[in-house]
Amino acid sequence: MKIQQYYLACLSHASYMIMDEKSKTAAVVDPQRDVDQYLRDAAAGGYRIQDVFLTHFHADFVAGHIELRERAGATIRLGMRAEAEFACVKMKDGDAVEFGDVRLEVLETPGHTPEGISILVYDLAQNRTSPQAVLTGDTLFIGDVGRPDLLASIGVTADELADMLYDSITNKLAKLPDATLVYPAHGAGSMCGKALSKETVSTIAEQKKFNYALQPMSREDFKKIVTADQPEAPEYFVHDAILNRKERPSLDAAMQSTFQALSLEEVTRMHRAGAQLLDVRDGIDFEGGHLRESVNIALSGKYATWCGSVLSRDRPIIVIAGEGGEKEAVIRLGRIGFDNVGGYLAGGMGALLHHEDLLERTERITAPALAEWLGGGRTDAGAIPVVVDVRSPAEHASGSVPGSVNIPLPHLEERVGELPRGTPVVVHCEGGYRSAIAASVLQKLGRKETRDLVGGFKAWAAAKLPVASGHV
């Protein structure tokens, strides 16, 4: 038996393929929507993908169960409480699939969602009574547990889910043999929890020792601790959780209509009709020159998450990319169910070579220059600027530029009216990725006196400039 982990860093998502050498059969658990890697690896090893399991209806990405059904003929398997539009096999505690020396046994572990399951993986050639591993989905993470408060769990309260989670952790997962390997569906950076580790595999023994949620405590204490201080979930989470329940077009089918080259004339016409312009180049390149009213969300960061937070699902998206980046940009939008792409600008920024009137630039400012300006030492720069910190409230409270206004990036467009018109604005985040997005959003909204703080708050602190703390 082999367990192959596939880790998708941009979504902090782990999926798995379990392969049996004797029967040349495989099963995939929690696949990403673009499934080529599973099919490629299965073909290379001579395996047939027989089953695809979803541990629950994921909220932060669209899973690839439909794609594996269509391309590999895999049977879709879900927990007993799952309600789906598509044909599937529902499995309860103790139900199992066996092929060769592999046994995959379902353990119902609701809490993050009502239908959540974990999958016990047995290598029958080694040990028929104790599992080698448990694939815990979003119930148990390395260092954390799945949050029970996501709105994706429509019709069930956070309190009810926290009750279920306590039972799943205390009465099921924590009672597995200490040596059992723990393979979760997410790692650090995921918003499905608050304290996920960068590690991608652990053991039950390690989690009972180091995971805060597995320490001895009462049910009420557990419920309080797992619901406290959770990060704000992006709006698209509800959309994806619903989409994962539905019969829907495959990614290949969606790409046939979305991956098309557009002339500059077509792009400007579609933009006038309401299309969104998405520039996926790195922030420094975007700020050096970009198509007017485009939003910058670089492929080099948490691209899909921020696209889901900043862009609309209801209007076409036109991609502007560096050479060869168009397909990746569209695929990664498809991973979160954003199939509303209208196409991409043929030739990228080269299409604007003789169209200076359509170009716009974003000014950048260093931390020392900003400090001088705030102190009144730059009379050439105009009025004292408003500094907008687009990090989360918790980040802002831990240390900030004195006098800065905290407007988290997901709320910037709705709260732009709080910023005085006619006053320069300097935006910053922690290191510069989010502030490049923020500056582009403000410029798109007509706030042309916007500058981006180079290096973000890290650069401000590194320059030994004054830091305020302890407030939100």
Please summarize what this structure is:
The protein is an alpha/beta fold. It folds into three domains: 2-240, Metallo-beta-lactamase, Chain A; 249-360, 3-Layer(aba) Sandwich (Oxidized Rhodanese, domain 1), CATH 3.40.250.10; 363-462, Rhodanese-like domain (Oxidized Rhodanese, domain 1, 3-Layer(aba) Sandwich). Helix content is 27%, strand content 22%.
Structure description:
The protein has 472 residues and is of the alpha/beta class. It folds into three domains: 2-240, Metallo-beta-lactamase, Chain A (4-Layer Sandwich); 249-360, 3-Layer(aba) Sandwich (Oxidized Rhodanese, domain 1); 363-462, Oxidized Rhodanese, domain 1. It is 27% helix and 22% strand. Helix 14 links the parallel strand 25 (425-428) and strand 26 (450-453). Helix 3 crosses helix 5. The longest helix is centred in the middle third of the chain and has 14 residues, at 158-171. The termini are far apart. The mean pLDDT is 94.
Helix-strand blueprint:
Layout: E1 2-8, E2 13-20, E3 25-29, H1 36-45, E4 48-53, H2 65-72, E5 75-79, E6 89-91, E7 96-99, E8 102-108, E9 117-123, E10 133-137, E11 140-141, E12 144-145, H3 158-171, E13 181-184, E14 202-203, H4 204-210, H5 219-227, H6 236-243, H7 251-258, E15 261-262, H8 264-272, E16 276-279, H9 283-288, E17 290-291, E18 295-296, H10 303-310, E19 317-320, H11 326-334, E20 341-345, E21 359-360, E22 363-365, H12 367-374, E23 386-389, H13 393-398, E24 405-406, E25 425-428, H14 433-444, E26 450-453, H15 456-462
Helix pairs in contact: 3-5
